[in-house]
Specification:
Length: 367
């Protein structure tokens, strides 16, 4: 069984690249990769169009030169990606291979705008897929309601296996209750932009810090609103906030190991935030919103706290509960690590994908 997976350059940042970097060691020798998209992350509109056309041409050449049983495409449900990757689906269908479309990012607001001509184009391209994978059950419900009648799979993002090899004693947090003992460290690790909830996180932290002086907020990441976030901290005189910029590798692991609570009040069009499940894998309780696939698995008051609100005061109330109770943090963190190991480990996610490929090969071809 030969599989061709179309992905961005795996050396780049981004959810799809990170996902396949993580699971690639477990996919086996019969899985190959086709690189598409920008190699630099920055392109003019003219260069983008030229590169897209070149990608389509290289893709056709690859399909003609080699037989593949399955072609696996990884779009996001956002306007530009739908158009670009819809062409890849049509080209793959002409090759006779079975097609898996795995939607990663998902703009819920776009669902209501998929009508008329756009809906016809969407069905013409994406309904040729033999199976579709999504990161949230409600995304699958939308596809079924739109008329897609083939299998829809709810899958997850993945955590590097090495995280689960960390000795338990390295995961023991010995911080205090926000007023006595060691500082309680709250981690926000994400792209720094408003839709990722960074300003809600800063507001919530400032409210808690006013009552609990031994709490700190560690902000890791870069993005378009980083300087605005720094100014808010400075202008409002919020103490206890430290910015780390973009982190990866050992620096990222150190932040996860040193932090006590993960705070991520995102309202971005998420699929399933990798930073959230990584925090769980490192044995941290989480405070977040039901974005994307989070709503499918997150157990409120057992894994941490979940709220539909975007109000900093609401998140401050939840954060205060965890800051003030070390034992609650430990019990939630222990549960989260076990849950992540049983659901999100890279070998398990890769194994489920291989099973999906096998079902496609044994089933009917695309129309």
């Amino acid at each position: 069984m030969k599989v061709l997976i179309a992905t961005p350059d795996l050396s780049m940042q981004g959810g799809v690249a990170n996902f396949f970097r993580t699971i690639r060691p477990f996919l086996g020798k019969d899985v190959e990769f086709f690189t598409l998209g920008s190699r630099s992350g920055e392109e003019s509109r003219r260069k983008t169009v030229g590169r897209m056309v070149a990608d389509w041409g290289r893709f056709v050449s690859r399909l003609r030169a080699e037989h593949h049983d399955v072609v696996h495409l990884n779009p996001s449900f956002v306007p530009k990606a739908l158009v670009r990757d819809g062409v890849f689906v049509l080209l793959a269908a002409l090759s006779g291979a079975r097609i898996l479309v795995f939607f990663h990012g998902w703009d819920v607001g776009l669902q209501g705008r998929v009508n008329g001509l756009l809906a016809a184009l969407f069905r013409t391209a994406y309904f040729r897929a033999d199976s579709v994978a999504v990161l949230a059950s409600r995304f699958g419900d939308f596809l079924k309601d739109s008329g897609y009648r083939r299998p829809v799979i709810v899958e997850t993002t993945a955590v590097d296996e090495e995280v689960f090899q960390i000795p338990e004693d390295k995961l023991l947090r010995r911080s205090g209750n926000g007023k006595t003992g060691r500082d309680v460290k709250v981690l926000y690790l994400s792209r720094i932009e408003a839709a990722k909830g960074v300003f809600t996180a800063l507001d919530a932290f400032a409210r808690v810090r006013a009552r609990f002086p031994k709490v700190r907020l560690l902000v890791a990441g870069e993005g378009p609103d980083l300087e605005r976030a720094r100014r808010q901290v400075s202008d409002q005189g919020i103490e206890g906030v430290e910015f780390f910029g973009y982190v990866r590798g050992a620096d990222k692991e150190r932040l996860f190991l040193e932090s006590d609570i993960y705070l991520f009040p995102t309202f971005y069009p998420e699929g399933l935030p990798i930073s959230l499940i990584e925090a769980m894998a490192y044995g941290m309780p989480a405070i977040t919103r039901p974005a994307g696939g989070v709503a499918d698995f997150f157990e409120n008051e057992r894994m941490g706290y979940l709220s539909d609100s975007r109000d900093g005061e609401v998140f401050a109330g939840m954060l205060e509960k965890l800051v003030s109770d070390p034992e609650l943090r430990r019990s939630m963190g222990t549960y989260n690590r076990r849950y992540a190991a049983a659901r999100f480990a890279a070998s398990l996610v890769a194994g489920r994908l291989i099973e999906t490929y096998g079902r496609l090969v044994s089933g009917a071809r695309a129309d």
